[in-house]
Amino acid sequence: MTLIWKLLRQHISLPQLGGFFLANLVGMTIVLLAMQVYEDILPAFRGEDGFLRNTYIIASHRVTATSAMSSQTTTFTDEEIADIEAQPFTRRVGVFTASRYKVFASIGMGGHYVGTDMFFESVPDAFVDADLAQWHYAEGDAEIPIILPRSYLAIYNFGFAESQSLPKLSEGLVSMIQMDLRLRGAAAEQTLKGRVVGFSNRLNTILVPEAFMAWSNATFAPEGEAAPTRVIIEVTTPTDDAIPAYFQEHGLESDGDQLDTGRATFLLKMVAGGVMAVGLLISLLAFYILMLSIYLLVQKNAVKLQNLLLIGYTPARVSLPYQLLTLGMNAGVLLLAVAVLLYLRGYYLDLLWQMFPQMSEGRLMPTLVLGIALFALVSIVNIAAIRHKINNINRPA
User: Fold this and answer.
1) What's the CA gap between 73 and 75, in Å, rounded?
2) What distance in Å separates the CA atoms of residue 183 and residue 101, rounded to the nearest whole number?
3) N or C: which terminus of the chain carries fewer CB neighbours within 10 A?
């Protein structure tokens, strides 16, 4: 082995091999870094402290100019709801039931009376993100429990109260205020008492219990039954990019930016995939440089190789030094690429933890498996190509 290596190494071009090593190192590092950044950033989307952690989506039909100017329905049919429930990303679905009568609410504060027209909606209790201890109603109860969006209180405190010189209200104070509710429909009219028992971050509507909604609609507007115009979907994985695709295909839209989870994850996958593609291209070019260098080296040593084969050396033994050379260089590239990756990872993880203190770091194992797989693939191809070239020299002209 030592004698063979001394004979064959004379024509080795260190600049060519150095160029291969550097190019392959850059390509391998880019591929592994793109993979690991994807693994590390994903918890920021999915975790409890993630900025896109919402697992509930409120869906409605998109209102277009055509539907707004015509009688085109924007309600959900039973078939549409069943289709949403059957999607892989759906855990469960709830429908919004709207009041079919007019509601006027008024409250008095320090001699000032404030009143406004409003509406009620209800959803199944499982979708309500507030304390449900007082969330119940039976026919004849003295008060109607109400849950308000937390954003409504902010609008009052920093908008209406400022402009009208009214006192600001805390959540606890609002819960102590009793309001007068005048309900008026085609069949009846009645004044009841209402009290805010909680605030919701998830549902941007004025909620009452389903039991009250069923009773009040039957009492004040018994004619017909209105189909739901909105549904709330609890999804299994909010980062599933199939969700925005389904909404686009079926003409649905969500409240606010609830679909940003799927869109942002899809964008993250596209960016990571694009960066990995660039890294693979660089690695492919580096592989070409290496094979060109090896082929040139074999061609320069063709006479020596033929003599070695003629005196009894097997093609496997003659090709072994070249194979070990490429194997060692590929292993060096992998180890150095992993070292660079770990150094850069420590830097950007510090930045991520500053933004998301509770975020857990992503898995390192998938990236290492990818690196080992690329190393094995390139090495196998290198070894097979070198052996093929030596066999061609061994064949008689």
Assistant:
1) 6
2) 7
3) C
Write down the residue that tokens 């660089």 correspond to: 282
The pLDDT profile of the chain, 397 residues, written as one tens digit per residue, is: 566 666 556 656 677 677 777 877 888 888 888 888 877 776 665 544 444 455 788 888 887 655 545 555 678 888 999 999 999 989 899 999 888 889 998 876 656 677 788 889 999 988 888 888 889 998 888 899 999 988 888 887 887 777 777 778 788 888 888 888 999 988 888 889 999 998 888 888 899 999 999 899 988 888 867 678 889 988 877 667 788 888 888 888 887 655 655 556 666 667 767 777 776 777 677 667 666 666 666 676 667 667 777 777 777 777 777 788 888 888 998 999 899 989 888 888 887 777 666 666 778 888 899 889 888 888 888 788 778 777 776 665 4
Overall size of the chain counted in residues: 397
Alpha-helix residue ranges (DSSP H) falling in the chain: 2-8, 14-46, 65-69, 78-85, 150-155, 161-164, 171-176, 210-220, 242-249, 260-300, 302-310, 315-355, 365-394
**Best CA proximity match to 254, nearest among 267, 226, 235, 227:** 235
- Rounded CA gap, 149 and 171, in Å? 11
Q: Whole-model pTM?
A: 0.54
Phi, psi (5° rounding) for residue 119? -145, 165
Nearest to 315 by CA among 48, 16, 51, 4: 4
Q: What is the DSSP annotation of 109-145?
A: ETTEEEEEEE--EE--GGG--S--TT----TT-SEEE
Which amino acid is it at 65? Answer: A
Report DSSP state, residue 55: -
**Which of 1, 2, 19, 3 minimizes the C-alpha distance to 329?**
19
Q: What is the DSSP letter of 167?
A: P
- Note whether 259 and 239 are within 8 A (CB): no
174, 166 Cβ separation under 8 angstroms: no
**Domain assignments of the chain as residue spans, ordered by start:** 2-48+263-394, 56-256
